[in-house]
Design brief:
The protein is α+β, with helices and mostly antiparallel strands. About 25% of the residues lie in helices and about 20% in strands. It has a single domain (about 5-105), classed as HIT family, subunit A. The structure holds 2'-deoxyguanosine-5'-monophosphate.
Amino acid sequence: MPDCLFCQIIAGDIPAEVVAETSTAFAFRDVNPQAPLHVLVVPRTHAADVGELAEVEPGTVPELVRVARQVATEAGHDSYRLVVNTGAEAGQTVLHAHLHVLAGRALAWPPG
Ligand code: DGP
């Protein structure tokens, strides 16, 4: 999707600090980190959100979770939070499916 920010990051057209890559998933640091570790794990295939990804490419959803765990554990974190904002009211601002991986500080519950 030429106008999609995360598609442009995956293509290397917009720079990002890449931390993991597989054939279907891509992980890079969030530009506005909310925790000492804040990584976005995204599918290479464009889908507007994780629910849509589950419909069009279901095998990639567990791969995103696997890569998220790998990123957290390689950074030394047993505890981490995965956040999936879906829709504007839930805080989604980029319409390309992504998991936020947050770790490295105590995280309050419930989230705001
Ligand atoms: P969300 O609000 O759940 O759609 O999360 C989108 C995230 O994307 C947000 O935490 C900030 C991040 N982000 C936005 N633009 C860029 C960018 O150009 N580079 C990187 N690395 N992250 C970005």
